[in-house]
Amino acid sequence: MSDLLEMKNLKIGATVYPPDEAPHDIEIVKGVSFALEKGKVLGLIGESGAGKSTIGLASMGYGRGGVEITGGEVWINGRDVLKGGMKGLRALRGAEVTYVAQSAAAAFNPARKLMEQVTESTLQHGRCSRPEAEARAVELFAKLGLPNPETFGNRYPHQVSGGQLQRAMTAMALCPQPDLVVFDEPTTALDVTTQIDVLAAIKDAIRDTGVAALYITHDLAVVAQVSDHIMVLRHGEKVEYGTAEQIITAPREDYTRALVSVRQIDHPEKAPAEPVLTASNITARYAGTAFDVLKDVSVALSPGQTLAVVGESGSGKSTLARVITGLLPPSEGAIDFAGRTLSPALAGRSREDLRELQMIYQMADVAMNPRQTVGTIIGRPLEFYFGMTGKKKRDRVQELLDQIEMGEGFIDRYPAELSGGQKQRVCIARALAADPKLIICDEVTSALDPLVADGILKLLLDLQKKQNVAYLFITHDLATVRAIADSIAVMYQGKVVRYGPKSEVLAPPFDDYTDLLLSSVPEMKLGWLEDVLAHRKMESAGH
Amino acid sequence: MRIPIAALIGLILTTCYFVVAIFAPLLAPYGMAEVVGGVWEPSSEQFLLGTDNIGRDLLSRMIYGGRTTIFIATAATILSFTTGAVLGFSAAVLGGWPDQLLSRFIDLLMSIPTLIFALVVLSVMPVTVPMLILVMGLLDSTRVFRLARAVAVDINVMDYVEAAKLRGEGYRWIIFREILPNALSPLVAEMGLRFIFMVLFVSTLSFLGLGVQPPQADWGGIVKENADGIVYGIGAALYPAVAIATLAISVNLVADWILNRTTSLKGGRG
């Protein structure tokens, strides 16, 4: 056997317990087969529910939370891991196969030092002595670009940043010198600017140690940078398998083609007009803190246009939304909206102010009351602002559902009976029901699968055209910004560092931060990571 | 929908008790305070459970006693939940000083043992059924307040509540339409436990002589009246004890089932 890992007709199932229904079995993975050679990287890609993480964990003979491997074989190093019993699995996990989870913050024990945790499984398996394991960990810390590799292990998880923690977790996985590492969305929770460093570190570590890897992600552009082969999954079935180059440049299946061409919406920029919203010199801080989260922020937004507020987490972009909505009164500055000055606090605003300024949230799940039907959720603003009741209200709700392309049969459903994309559409309809002049969209697509997110963006643009509503679009995703913005404000540490029409903001010369941000967005081409890193090296040498 | 066997037993027994309580005058063979036989007669065809310490039919006393006890416990539970939940939700939604004021006042009440507090109040106030319900309900509402506030604080930070606030909704809508439906399942489960606590509470008070006043029957009172009989090997005092125990268990079985059914955590208990 030359293959390190081979899965033959793998089937994975689980029992679901829907409310008011008898429990029944469903199939999560429906007979997937593939092989992975030593030292190669296979990217598993697909939307949520495609079964990619489940397959990744199955390579360790593990099913998470009631998930069971119901059929097929998993061969590692010429052994069928499903037949090895508990003892065989214990020898396998943490030694031959290791795992890097999505959220490193949740995967580390906060009460123990990093070094103990990084070397734990190595020592557990008796692969080497403690000094040897620690020496190897330090070597890995250095290889992964962690600061002060000699002393890094003496820190506790809360004393390092998210990106560093993710790299420490990679070190933990590589420390026992495994044959296979399963990376489960290792960079998804990170900011773009951090993601690129972690990605480069992981790629180097894989190359230097010669380990094989399964790289699981929903972002095709990311997986294209690290993988030799890519397998596209959907609904637990293999859609397409090929080399990274073939998948990116010549996809055979329609579904893969859609994934490759995601976010290529053409949106010509509109000329600025008399603004509907002007925020001038906003400074704000949270109660009980002595730190300004927003520092002298000024932006303006024209009617029927989109202002994208971009920045990494902690840059203050969501705080700006809270200030505009009145949830956080600013300590300085004023907000003018539709020709009048808004009261800084929510309590001082008129019903008309509230109606014309609506908001859509990132997590549609928690933005809707789970105990209200779609009809109530969308109908309430109609009743509240326009006094509509009975049949008139129901007709209008249906009209709004038609506008968000959902149609008949949804009005009496509860949010739990909708898909992720449908939930977000209902939230859009709720905002539209108030007939607003401005909608604040707070990361509305970042919790959605790429294709679903594309649909939402197209819907938002379409609605903007018809209803002339303005969007303040908060996001960390520059691909989204390119697709929908008319003007852009780049935020960094509470300040607007770059602001203007899209064509100006996205054209050189760049300031340092915007350059870093723009160049960090993964592009759908092979070798992008190397190009960016080489470009950055040259720049820093030039300075 | 399949009802687990334990919950089914609980449901049947609880329903039985409530039916008996409601239709007591129709079901009882004799009047509540009617002296019909000798003192502590053994069970016979005429008196199914025998007679009590002054010759009243024990079965009739039990049936009427159940009616009193269950009525008082139910009324006090409803009072305690309405007060506790409304205050708890308000404290969570209002926040700031109203929350502080209410919470500290409730802490103060809770620091005094409930039974002692009730005994003190009832020894200076006239002991009537409405007074009993009021004292028991209000004292117990402190516990409901704690739970309701804790649940509501979690719900209050959800985006859908924020969305309602941004829409300009008043406190009434936020409390009753946004928070209450989502806080219902922990509260309903708690309701079963509080109800049982009320049954025990009213029985304790009656046993101590500060609860339901004779000749009106209630389970705690029946224990008190017949307690002396135990010395002579007469089990009359045990019937109400058994009734209290079975009611407590069956209500708990139902409450457990409701909690299991409505909780979002699947594959947990049961």
Task: Itemize the secondary structure elements and their pairings.
The complex is a heterodimer of chains A (543) and B (270).
Chain A: E1 3-16, E2 24-37, E3 41-45, H1 52-58, E4 68-76, E5 79-80, H2 85-92, E6 97-100, H3 104-107, H4 114-124, H5 130-143, H6 149-152, H7 162-174, E7 180-184, H8 192-209, E8 212-217, H9 220-226, E9 229-234, E10 237-243, H10 244-249, H11 254-260, E11 277-284, E12 294-301, E13 306-310, H12 317-325, E14 332-337, E15 340-341, H13 351-356, E16 357-360, H14 364-367, H15 374-386, H16 390-403, H17 420-433, E17 438-442, H18 450-467, E18 470-475, H19 478-484, E19 487-492, E20 495-501, H20 502-505, H21 512-520, H22 528-542
Parallel strand pairs in A: 3-8, 3-9, 6-7, 7-8, 13-18, 13-19, 16-17, 17-18
Antiparallel strand pairs in A: 1-2, 1-4, 4-5, 9-10, 11-12, 11-14, 14-15, 19-20
Helix pairs in contact in A: 4-5, 4-7, 7-8, 15-16, 15-17, 16-17, 17-18
Chain B: H1 5-22, H2 24-27, H3 58-94, H4 96-110, H5 114-124, H6 129-156, H7 159-167, H8 171-207, H9 219-226, H10 238-262
Helix pairs in contact in B: 1-3, 1-10, 3-4, 3-6, 3-8, 3-9, 4-6, 5-6, 6-8, 7-8, 8-9, 8-10, 9-10
